[in-house]
Amino acid sequence: MEVFDTIIQISDSAVRLAIPLLLACLAGLFSERGGIFDIGLEGKMLAAAFLSAGVAAATGNVWLGLFAGIAVSVVLALIHGVASITFRGDQLISGVAINFLAAGLTVVIGQAWFGLGGRTPALPGDGRFSNLEWPVADALKDVPVLGPVYSELISGHTFLVYVALLIVPLSWYVLFRTRFGLRLRAVGENPGAVDTAGISVVKLRYSAVIICGVLCGLAGAYLSTGLAAGFVKDMSAGRGFIALAALIFAKWRPVQALMACLLFGLLEAIANRYQSIEIGALEIPVQFMQALPYILTVVILAGFIGKAIPPKAGGEPYVKER
Amino acid sequence: MTLMRTFLGAAATVAISTAAAVADPAVIFDLGGKFDKSFNEAAFNGATRWAEETGGSFLEVEIQSEAQREQALRRFAERGANPIVVTGFGYASALDTVSKEFPDTKFAIIDVNWLEGDNIRQIAFAEHEGSYLVGMLAAMASESNTVGFIGGMDIPLISRFACGYAQGVKAANPDATVVQNMTGTTPAAWNDPVKGGELTRTQISQGADVIFAAAGGTGLGVLQTAADEGVLSIGVDSNQNHLHPGSVLTSMLKRVDNAVYDVFSAGEDLETGVTLAMGLENNGVGFSLDEFNESLLTEEMRAAVAEASAKIIAGEVVVHDYMSDESCPVN
C-alpha cells in the first residue's frame, strides 16, 4: 500500500510539473503548425508569469492577473508575428530577442514597481489560484485504489490544470476536424497552395501566433499564480525550451504532446523524490537523475524516436511571387 | 588674472581632496541578487546600515553571470573603491587574481578561508553550528519525527548546512528521520521557487513536518508551500520569520550584515591578511527569535538550545564540519 501511495504522490507531482510544459508545448504546436517557428516560448511565459503575479499582487484579484498575463504574452507574440510574417525576418532571431527582452524587462519593471529586486510581493489568498476540490473527494479518500486516485490525483489541482488538459482534445479537434485547422496545417506545409486557393496566408499565420500567445500566457500565469505565489526572476527556468523538445518528441501532434510532457513531468518528479537511486550495488547519483530530462532531450533530438518531420514551410517567411 | 588663478587653484585643491576622499567602499553581490531575502540581502542590509549611520555612500553591483565576477572586481578596484567586499565562495579565484594586481586596495571575502594575500580579509561562518541549533529546534517541534532539509545548489557549503542540521536533529531526537533534497546542480537552483515548492510537497508526503530551506530565492517557494500545507519551515541567513508569521519556526541567522558593516566601518584602515571565523561564540551565527515566532518556541526548546549553544562554545560538543572531510557522520 505504501508503494501505491508513493506512486500516487509521484503522479500527482508529475501532473503539476507537466502542465506548464504542456501549455507551452501546445502554444508551440499551433505556431509551428502554422509555419512560424517560435523559440520565444520561454520569454513569453516569463513575461506572463511576471505580469500576472504583478497585477494579482496589486489588485488582489487573480483573474485580472491571468488576463494581464495573457495580454502581455499576446503582445510579445504579435511582435514576433510582425517581425517574422509582415517583415519576413529571421524567426529564430526574433524568438531569441523576445527571450532576452522578457528576461531583462521583467526584472527592471519589477524593481521599478515593487522595489524588491525584480520579485513581486508574495501573493495573498485571492491573488492565487486555489486548488479545486472535486465533489465527494474527501468521502472517497478511504476507498481502496480508486479513492486515492480520485481524491489526490484527479481532484485538488488548480483551475488552470483542468483547462490545460481540456485544451489537448480541443486542439486535436480544431487542428484535424475543422476547416480552420486544415488551413492552418496547410499554411505550415505549403503556403503557396493556400494562397492560390484565395485564403490569406498572413491572416492565418497571425491567428496562429495569437493562439500561441494566449497559451503561453496561461502557462506563465500558472507558474507564478498556480504553482508558486509570486514572481522571481528567471522563474521559467528553461521550461520553454523543454516544451520545444517535447513538441519535437510529439511530432507536432496534441495528444502525443500531452504524453511527452507527462513523461518529462514524471522524470522531474522522480528526480525530486529519489535524489539517488540504488540498484543493487550500483548507485545512480543525483546529478544523473536531475540531468535525465536533458539527456532524454538529446537522445530524442538525435532521432531515437524515428523521423520527426517538422512542418515543411516552418521557419520560412512566405513571399508571394509577383 | 590673479583672482582667476586663485580661483582655479582653489578649484584644483578641492578636486584633489575630493579625489582622495572618494575612496568609497564597495560590495559585489553573488548570483542570487541583493534582494534574495537571504544571504546577499544580509550583506546589502549591513552596507545600508553603515551608509545610514555615517552618511557615506558605497558602490554596489549585482553580477548576472559567472563570467562577470573578475570583471566587476577589477572595475571597482580601478575606480579606487576601498575596501571592496565580495559575497560568496564563487569569488575566490577571481579575488585571488585581482587582489595581486591591486596590492594597495583592501578586499574582504565572505564564506572563504583558503586564500592567501596580505590585502585580503577572509570571513568564514560556522554554518554547521547555527544549523545544529535549528536542527534541534526542528526535531523538538516535529510531531511526525520526520524533518526535511532543502538545499539550493549541490555544493559542499550547502552540505555543511545539511550536515549540521542533521546532527542537531539527531542530538535532540535520535529516532528522527531527516529527508534531504538539493534543488539542482547549477546556479539556477538558487532561483527556482516552483521546484522548491514541489520538493516541499514531496517531503511533506514523506512525512516531514518541519522543513529547513537553505536555498536562497528557491527557499521562498519552500516557505510559501510549507505555509500553504500547514507545516513548519525554517528560514536561512536573514531573519525570514516575518514572511509567514506562525509558520516559520525560526531562521538560521548568518550575520553577514555585521561582517559587511564591520568592514565598511573600518574603511581603509581595515585589518587584512586575517581569516575570521564567525561562529556561535562571536554571534556570527545563531537563530532568530522575534514576535513572529515567540509562540512557536516553547520554554523547553529555548532552554535546550541555550544549553547546547553553551556547550558548543565551551568546546564540550563539537559539531562536525562537512567541509573538513567532505563527509557527514549522520544523515
List the helices and strands and how they pair.
The complex is a heterodimer of chains A (322) and B (331).
Chain A: H1 2-33, H2 41-59, H3 62-86, H4 91-114, E1 131-132, H5 137-140, H6 146-154, E2 157-158, H7 159-177, H8 179-189, H9 191-196, H10 201-227, H11 239-249, H12 254-273, E3 277-279, E4 282-284, H13 286-304
Antiparallel strand pairs in A: 1-2, 3-4
Helix pairs in contact in A: 1-6, 1-7, 1-10, 1-11, 1-12, 2-3, 2-4, 2-10, 2-11, 3-4, 3-10, 7-8, 7-12, 8-10, 11-12, 11-13, 12-13
Chain B: H1 2-21, E1 26-29, H2 39-54, E2 59-62, H3 68-78, E3 84-87, H4 92-101, E4 107-110, E5 120-125, H5 127-141, E6 146-153, H6 156-172, E7 177-184, H7 193-205, E8 210-214, H8 218-229, E9 232-237, E10 248-254, H9 256-266, E11 274-278, E12 285-287, H10 299-314, H11 322-325
Parallel strand pairs in B: 1-2, 1-3, 3-4, 4-5, 5-11, 6-7, 6-8, 8-9, 9-10
Antiparallel strand pairs in B: 10-12
Helix pairs in contact in B: 2-9, 3-4, 5-6, 5-10, 7-8
Describe the 3D structure.
The complex is a heterodimer of chains A (322) and B (331). Chain A has 322 residues and is mainly α. Chain A has helices at residues 2-33, 41-59, 62-86, 91-114, 137-140, 146-154, 159-177, 179-189, 191-196, 201-227, 239-249, 254-273, 286-304, and strands at residues 131-132, 157-158, 277-279, 282-284. Chain A is globular and about 65 Å long. Chain B is α/β, with parallel strands linked by helices. In chain B, strand 1 (26-29), helix 2 and strand 2 (59-62) form a beta-alpha-beta unit. In chain B, helix 2 (39-54) runs parallel beside helix 9. Chain A binds chain B through residues 5, 9, 13, 16-17, 116-119, 122, 223, 227-230, 232-235, 237-238, 268-269, 272-273, 275, 286-287, 290-291, and chain B through 33-36, 154, 180-182, 184-185, 188, 191-195, 197-199, 201-202, 205, 217, 220-221, 224, 228, 243.
